[in-house]
Each structure stands twice: as C-alpha cells, then as structure tokens.
Specification:
six-stranded mixed sheet; five-stranded mixed sheet; 37% helix; globular
C-alpha cells in the first residue's frame, strides 16, 4: 500500500545550522528512503529558511534538495508545498520547474479514507497585531515589487540575519512557545464546530512534535521540525503514525 508523508519546518539554508549542506543531505536521504512507497508528500511550510523568486534568476543553493523533489515528482509522487512564514515568496518557478503544487493557506483533503486539514499554522487563530502586520506587508504586491528591486546582495544577507535574530529571540523565551500551541488548539475547537468531518488537523510552525485528541475523536498533530527532532508523520495501512528520522 502506498503511503502519504507529512513534514514541516526544514528551514534549509538557515544560518544557525552548523553545516547547512549536511542538513540538506539529511533531508535528501530521507526523501530517497521513501521514494518506493510514497504516494504523496506534504510539506507544511518553512521548508526553506528564506526564498525569494526573481523573474529571471533564482537564489543559489538547495540543488540536491530540488533535484530530489524533481526526481520524485517525475516518478509520479505527488508533492504539495504549503507555504509558511519563511518561504512566502514562492511564485511560479518551483511549481513549473519541479512539478509541485504550491498552496498559500490551508488544504483539506481525504487521504486513505480520513479527512485532513493542513496548514503551516502561522496564519490561524488569534495573532499578535505586529505579526498580522508583517504577514500583510510580506504579501502585499507593491511591497514585493519594491523588495525585488533591491539587489539580492543586500536582501539575502538581511533576510538570513533577520531569521537568526528571530531564532535567538525564540530560544531566549523558550521553545516551543506554549501560547502558540494553545492558539492552535483553540482554533481547532472553533473550526471543528463547522467542520465536524475533519479527522486530523496537521500544523507546523511551532517546532514541537505533538499529538492530541481534541474533540469528537479528531486529533491535532504538530509535526515538529528538522533542526533537532527530524520528525514526520506517515499515513498508511496502520493509520497515522509519528516518527523520527535517523
């Protein structure tokens, strides 16, 4: 029986990895190990720590990772990429070049007889005003064009330094942030009232591996990350399982 895989928060290219290439190779090795039985792979955001597509050029790096995605896609594996708050600026290059589906927001699908609601998790529930402002700013077409007009020699180092700074802030307050988990749970409880058919709610973003029965038999799963945990979910004949790689 073919299986579906779910993972998030790879943060490839992040400046806080001791060795970014080894981090990429680890992900590629995992993808290679599942190529025989994978029917679909769902990437729930923050796959890349930073990515901005320009009209005629693409940033350097991620060759091994992109190559493996292309190989899997060409072999018939369905790949769905739900963008997060770090890989917002995926436009048409990756879908056309790699043959993947890119979703900005949430996705509800029936997988092996169960209904899944999937999203990165940064855009649901009660969000701080400052975070809502940044989300709107980053998705604004005028702001995107203005950002693209700045030479990448300035924007790329700035973005990676921003990511490093945000990571340090998170570690200082203690990761995972329990408020984020509470926010996701409250969102699920409210959303499920109008969508009682959902069996599994899958999120990333919080950087914690978690599985909890929330209501009416539905479960909330937070997929963890690939910085320290290397965790993922798999849906097959044995139902939904959480595992760690390596």
């Amino acid at each position: 029986m073919k299986k579906s895989y779910f993972l998030s928060d790879l943060h490839l290219g992040a400046p806080y990895f001791p060795d970014s290439r080894e981090a990429e190779k680890r992900v590629v090795a995992f993808l290679d190990s599942i190529k025989q039985d994978a029917e679909a792979i769902y990437l729930l955001g923050d796959v890349l720590d930073y990515w901005y597509e320009y009209r005629y050029v693409v940033p350097r790096g991620f060759v091994r990772f992109f190559g493996k995605l292309a190989e899997l896609s060409d072999s018939g594996v369905r790949i769905v990429w739900l963008i997060g708050n770090h890989d917002i600026w995926i436009f048409d290059y990756l879908p056309k070049e790699l043959g993947i589906e890119v979703v900005d927001g949430s996705l509800t699908e029936e997988i092996h007889g169960k209904t899944f609601f999937m999203t990165h998790g940064d855009g649901v529930g009660k969000l701080p005003a400052s975070f809502r402002f940044l989300r709107c700013l980053f998705r604004n077409k005028i702001c995107q064009k203005a950002f693209a007009a700045i030479h990448p020699r300035w924007t790329i180092p700035f973005s990676y330094n921003w990511s490093r700074h945000r990571r340090k802030e998170g570690e200082a307050r203690g990761l995972p942030d329990e408020k984020l988990l509470v926010n996701l749970k409250e969102y699920v409880l409210d959303y499920h009232k109008a969508h009682p058919n959902v069996d599994y709610y899958l999120f990333g973003h919080v950087h914690v591996l978690s599985r909890e029965t929330v209501c009416d038999g539905c479960e909330m799963i937070v997929l963890g990350e690939w910085i320290r945990t290397f965790s993922y979910a798999i849906m097959g004949e044995n139902g939904l399982e959480l595992r760690k790689w390596g």
